[in-house]
Amino acid sequence: MSLTLAIDTSTDVRVGLAADGAVLASAAVTDPRAHAEQLMPLIGATLQGAARGLADVTQLVVGVGPGPFTGLRVGVVTAHTLAFALGVAVRGVCSLDVAAVAHARPAGHAGHARPAFSDGAGEFLVVSDARRHEVYWARYAADGSRLAGPFVGPATELPDLPVTGPGATLAGGTSTPLDGGLLALAGSDLPDAGLSPLYLRRPDAAVPTTRKSTLLQPRLGPGLKR
Amino acid sequence: MSGPLVLGIESSCDETGVGIVRGHELLANEVASSVEQHVRYGGVVPEIASRAHLEAMRPALERALAAADVDLTELDGIAVTAGPGLMGALVVGLASAKALAASLNKPLYGLNHLVGHVAVDLLDHGPLPQPCAALLVSGGHTSLLLVGDITGDITELGSTIDDAAGEAYDKVARLLGLAYPGGPVIDRAAASGNPKAIAFPRGLTAQKDLVKHRFDYSFSGLKTAVSRWVETRRRDGEDVPVNDVAASFQEAVCDVLSAKAVDACEHLGVSDILIGGGVAANSRLRALLEQRTSARGITLRRPRPGLCTDNGAMMAVLGAEVMGRELRPSSLDIGADSGLPVSKVLV
Ligand SMILES: [Zn+2]
Prior knowledge:
The complex is a heterodimer of chains A (226) and B (347).
Chain A: E1 4-8, E2 13-19, E3 22-29, H1 35-49, E4 59-63, H2 69-86, E5 89-93, H3 95-104, E6 124-129, E7 134-140, E8 146-154, E9 163-164, H4 180-186
Parallel strand pairs in A: 1-4, 4-5, 6-9
Antiparallel strand pairs in A: 1-2, 2-3, 6-7, 7-8
Chain B: E1 5-10, E2 15-22, E3 25-33, H1 35-38, H2 46-68, E4 77-83, H3 87-104, E5 108-112, H4 113-119, H5 121-125, E6 132-137, E7 142-147, E8 154-159, H6 165-175, H7 182-190, H8 207-213, H9 220-235, H10 242-268, E9 272-276, H11 283-295, E10 299-301, H12 305-308, H13 312-324
Parallel strand pairs in B: 1-4, 4-5, 6-9, 9-10
Antiparallel strand pairs in B: 1-2, 2-3, 6-7, 7-8
Bound molecules: zinc ion.
């Protein structure tokens, strides 16, 4: 029996379970600032709801972003540690790819991706909130395969294409949350994104420049020693 | 003598620590530091530290278990720093500890970092006399504590009202063109300088300050005084005697640190004091404390230098104490608290 546990904290807290080609559970805590508090309890409750335990998990999939850093790291380090403690494999995927799958294979058409047109018809963007008036985004073909990205930038500078994903309202579309169950189901088919977060931004840090003087007096001329 | 087998995780600042203890016996103490990545910024950059914690966590866990020759399934409990510290850094260790506890089905203990600095001395010198005073000095904290029972009876007598002592060392080192972190380089420069060359101010030691801040510290005035002194010399085209400035600055810091600590012991009738934190490795602080405590019949305790700085073993041994007293484990939904008060040992 295989059991895939999926974790994504690139937006809020998302968890999913899939086994034998079917979604068993999809769960979320929608508070975007409680990742460290809520992830492990949600994983426990989701497994319990499916009458499973952590010991039954045979594979892990984790969304490695992009997303706000602190919350994102909670999911990634949790996946790393669970994989280590349970002795199972973990696969990192781009979180935006999951929203692309949801768009390309709408409910009721499970497994049947929309055909990719060679002329680029049907292309779309997946967008999520990067805060600071910017979005994370990537460009996808109609079948949900990623063509470019992920990137971070102003929502006003996106290519003129339909938008979907958790931050779509920031770009004039309708937002669709990431689906943990779909991540568990489709995770092993999505491109491997490695096991480090897709930060896309450098840390905020300034190399100290010339220090401000603590001497408030105007500079005295040479020879005028006090 | 044995005791519970506890794995401790620490990630409150720039060291990723994983330690394993059995009761008061140290089995492993693996520390990965991101200090090199902060050098060019002259101080810890929280986001850089947090990224480093994530990369270092699993390798540190693997190394610690190998060093202790312990299998994960043998562990009795998981201890972790829940605060105080840098928020983004804390949650990496906390999330990892929760995942370990949940997958092993073992109790989780979210603990206070400052109390861990006190508890770590159990590994070197056994049970603490009750009560006992503790002076914790590092780049992140400067606190004077009264420690009764280490798992629940801790009072903060005083702390810094502005910069931590280690921060003042970093800033003065930068002013003098010395490397980061400032503690060891200033200590070295001071060794060949005259501590009496310049009379720098001793923060919160004036009569009027002692009323409200008898056991509190302040280093921002000292830092400004050093800066003004150095800039005046430079402006006047005179050489800056780096060693003398370093020695005089260090004397001002260590004089106040040790004087207030000893005053607290005498005031409260406490006959034992423990020092911890990175600055506990400072040679002048140690010398002054030794001199002033022995003159008053106070016993000075100091863990070995490798246990003074942030590490996972300190959280593990505090966890073992908490387990020994059968206190209730933490819930899996606890959060990190960057300002966790020292009176809260277990979250
Ligand atoms: Zn510390």
